[in-house]
Amino acid sequence: MSAPVDVAVAVLIRSDGAALLAQRPASKVYSGYWEFPGGKIEPGEPVAEALKREIREELGVEIERAFPWITRVFTYPHAKVRLHFHRVYAWRGEPRALEHQALAWQRPEAISVDPLLPANGPALRSLMLPAEYAITRAGELGIEPFLSRLEARLRGGLKLIQVREKNLARQATEEFARRVVVLARDHGAKVLVNSDVALAREIGADGVHLTAEQLRAAAARPESPWCGASCHSGEELRLAEALGVDFAVLGPVRATPSHPHAVPLGWERFSGIAKGAAVPVYALGGIVPRDLEQALSCGAHGIAMVRGAWES
């Protein structure tokens, strides 16, 4: 098959988290299917410019704030496409169906329109991932003080947590992880367990987070609802994509006490690796909340933090 056709795709996201889907016109293949709006990138046209042009033509709005997100190749019976997804958070004007049959704002976890264009399924699932991925540090702060901070963060809207406690004994880690899952359930948050697939299943966690060593050795994705993986290079990120993980964490972006011998990537190198990834990528390593905008502009899905997630 010939080289894929490059397509710019806009995921318009409202302040309530709903994303805009559009119903394909009767004149096109997959007529009536729902998709994220967008269109073909012309030869030599920058992706960002193609995105603005297509959305102006299709929806009648001007994009004001958009970030590169994920890039996925999908093969249809009639064509092979490379989809350059961008999340769009600000635009001027009210979206109108200038080329589609209809428009619908949809929550990623509660899609009500049907059928969906096949290539959009993974992107919709990825939209369920929040912008912050918080990694526990109970071994450093103390279990009870940490759980108090966790409960406060959950009340404030934290939705994704990784239990990672290298300095706690196995039994203490298991008991701690169970308590984290209970607290998270009360607030609708997801919990992943670092490296231990068996423990994640035993305590009813939402998934597992693979270390880079596990990622390199894995022959298949663990049977888990959600699966993340730690990556430190483009090579490892390709392995994560091939394994079919839901997201990756890439770092360290800056020097960090937990990995004192690791050479920081810096934002430029992080961007070079993350942009074009087929799975959402979180920036990790010396990250603080104010780094979110920088991370998004570099192609990250969001930020993963250890210390930065629990500071007052």
What is the alpha-carbon Rg in Å?
20 Å
- What's the overall geometry? globular
Task: Determine the fraction of residues in helical runs and give it as a percent range.
Answer: 25-40%
Class per helix and strand makeup: alpha/beta
Separation of the first and last Cα atoms: 55 Å
Main β-sheet description = 8 strands, parallel, barrel
**Strand content of the residues, in percent?**
25-35%
Our count of helices gives 10
Mean pLDDT: 96
Order of helices and strands: EEEEHEEEHEHHEHEHEHEHEHEHE
The number of strands is 15
Which parts are unreliable, with pLDDT below 50 for 5 consecutive residues or more?
none
Strand order of the largest sheet: 8-9-10-11-12-13-14-15
Protein traits:
312 residues; 29% helix; eight-stranded parallel beta barrel; alpha/beta; globular; four-stranded mixed beta sheet; 15 strands
Characterise the protein shown here:
There is one protein chain. Helix content is 29%, strand content 27%. By secondary structure, the chain is of the alpha/beta class. The strands form 3 sheets. An 8-stranded parallel beta barrel has the order 8-9-10-11-12-13-14-15. Strands 4-1-6-5 form a 4-stranded mixed sheet, covered by helices on one side. Strands 3-2-7 form a 3-stranded antiparallel sheet, with no helix packed on it. Strand 9, helix 5 (170-186) and strand 10 (190-194) form a beta-alpha-beta unit. It is globular. The protein starts with a strand and ends in a 7-residue tail after the last strand.
